[in-house]
Fold each of these.
Amino acid sequence: MSYQSTKAPPPFRRTPTKSPVRSSFESVSSNTPLDFSLPSYHSPSEKLQPPQKGSKSKRYVLVLATAALCCFMYILAMSAPEKTGSDALVALKNKVSQSTETLKQLIPAQPFVWSEPTPNFHSYAIAYLPLNKNSKCRRQSQITADFASLEASGRVEAIRLFSTDCKVIPAYLDYLKNRDSKKRSVDSALKLVLGIEPSALETTSDLDSEATSLELLTRSVDAQLMDIIDSLDESSSATEAFLRQLDLIVLGSEGLANQNYHPKELVEVLAHIRQRLDTLSSDIRIPVTTSEPLGIWDVLTPKERRDNVQEMLARQDGVHSVTPDDIEGPTGLFCDSVDVIGLSVSPFNNPTVDAAHAGAEVEESAYLASLLCNKPVLALEVGWPSAGSDNGNAKTGKDEQLQAVSSITAAVERISGKPLRSVLYQYFDDEWLSADEDFARHFGLKRLF
């Protein structure tokens, strides 16, 4: 689902909505519910081989009973005959949302400490889309200059890219070369969080019309990897130097939430891309993940572990926090297929959260994700709009945006107490979006850098 510089604005990510229901399926556009069951893992086929190169107890029982009923109803919805019409989508959204909401309600309130609104914030990374106001690609020299400006700001350590389009990899290599010419240490250069978007859409007429969806997805991934390889020098040293700048590969951006592919397909493609990366270098292991809302990580975790998370949260004494090691049960194939949990969080979508507590919303979601999957969490997409319509307590505005960003970048991991790594969304406003997209056009943070 790569964005094109000569066509309509790219649909590569879910734009936030104003729905009062926090749901992991806010942008579902199909009437066909996903089957979340995952088969036993098997390696990609030969044709996909890499190229040569009342009382508390009563209350807890009631909460657990409600959670069990939600899970049971969700399973029934997944196995029931297909329904048509918008009513089926609304029901699906609500049932998936309820499972996550039940977990959130069990988390004891914790005081959230955040800094006063200040432009001196620091975040792990910022998302970057190399598009102009008219949705066309920025010039390569402009992209290179943008990267240099982001480094000079000192506020981020990495850039998150959503694809390899717009010659963004050559621009990044130019940025590194310019730094080398000034004899700057490579250790201080911006790292890359590189997005690769799997797509099952045939882009050329010579493809096998009988190709499966999985085959098309892996082909699209291979094509984007070749874009990267073609941008590098022939020397192995150049390839290795570039790979060392890759902090993370993110396969897809809310593709499951948007029903772009099946969970079992995503698991297969994650294994496929890891195999491809291993062929590029045996010494450098680049972490791989995907980016999805908490609800997706929740419903794709085995029921046994979800139930145990709910039970442990209900039983906690308020003094000792529950940790992933306290949870019994397998984390499941989906969680096991990634190196780090890539979480997409939309605090503005929750009408009960104001800008000052945007970071608390991120903390809470990351805590639940870590309990479900027992892995580190990275908030891969989190921001706040500077203009547009309000959403309850979530108010838009430049002051509110700065307050939210300050709150988000002050968030900590509930268990370790260490700073929570987040990727701010995003550097530019999406001015190419239509006016009726409202606040979705105004997530840009360039003025703060």
Amino acid sequence: MQDAKVVQQIEAMDGRERERLRQFVRSPYFNRHEGTSRLLDFILKELAKPSPRLTEARAEDAVKGSGTEQGLADLQSSLMKLVNRFLAVEQLQQETFREEVLTLKRTRDLQRFELLENRGKRLDRMVDKHPYRDGDAHLAAYELKAIYTYHRDNANRSDTRNPQAMIDHLDRYYLVEKLRHACQLTANMMFRNTQYDLLFLDPMLAFLGSEKGLQLRREEGESSIDCYYHILLSLREPDEVVHYERMRYYLDEGLDRLPPLQRKDLFGFASNYCIQRIMSGHSDYRMELFSLYQRGITTGIMYNKEEISEWDYKNIVTLGSANGEVEWTEHFIEKNRERLPESKRENAYALNKAQFLYSLKRLDEAAKLLIRVTDSDVTYHLARVLLEVRIAYDQEDHDYALNLLETFRLYVRRNKSISVRDKRSYLNYTRYSKQLVNLKRQLGFVDRNTYHKKMTALHQSILETDPLVARQWLVQESSPAETSPA
């Protein structure tokens, strides 16, 4: 029974949500079966214990005497239906306009038209006072105008105001939602080799790029349309920097015009744009990305329920270290440690703090901290070894570096959770790193020309190989200009 879906759903709830569920199930409007209530009480009582004993036998004992003839499987099914309905009611309270819209629809169906007019005015005021013209606001306004336009007492067919407003809100709702999804799916097609048929997207973009479309995008309150329009074009036309500049405008001056979810979308796409520009050779975007992350921290956009993702944490530490922001970066590492997801916290903190210490050439401290990075997470294990190799290389501990690389090579080859492309990338890395270390060992034993020739050949091979992890480090360390003996 521990693995039953209804138990898993309840187990995922916090204490307050469980209490609201108990009150919901106890309500005679939603449930009149004592057996279902007793089953829930049993589950809640057991889940509150350090070691729950959710066996079928104990559950059956708990529901005895409830006057029900249902078996345990039927009671679980009934409780699952109630849990689903509870979640729907909970969600209804989270959506700004949905309850009002559903009330209007029910009032219309009951033909209580006087009440409909009064309730409709209430929703109209709510939409007017809503701080954003996002998809939710346009959808609510559209549904309200549709009710007004078509209910049976609407006798004045010559008045075009409601029908026109209905169509306007529907168009704007469609534009916001189409653009929002087009941004996500276009990014998916670019980076994950997928394909979607985005019907009507090109003519829609042509309209939005026209003078009339520009006028619509710049209407007061229509920032969502304009923002997603430029996000999408930044993906399709990355060299047209004007699109990123418009995104940056919204992050700086126009942030309060966007609802919270769209702010996060904007921040994510702007960050990824900078990362892609850096990867394509535009190194000036390193400072821009760092500035963007600082903005994300200041505004709180980059946090999700007070948590920071391990990848944003890593990127900020890497950029801060590379840009020489020593004091700021160290403060960030410590201040945001407890904001990391609990399951990743210790690995993410230890690895990134070690990376920071390495950037300061505090090699022994970095190596000591890396010991705390566990091997249970493949991603962190790979990153840890790469840093360990660099530390051994900088300390000229060539034997240890070669031992690390050989063990790492076997680990990568045998690990089934690493993709084929990533295996190639890491195996190429171990091959070239071994060659680099061996050349460094020969530095005092070969003539200058031979050394330079071998290093030049290695450098060229590194430049031409793809995929290859840690390419920048390998390119730097194999550069003939940097490595030629005096």
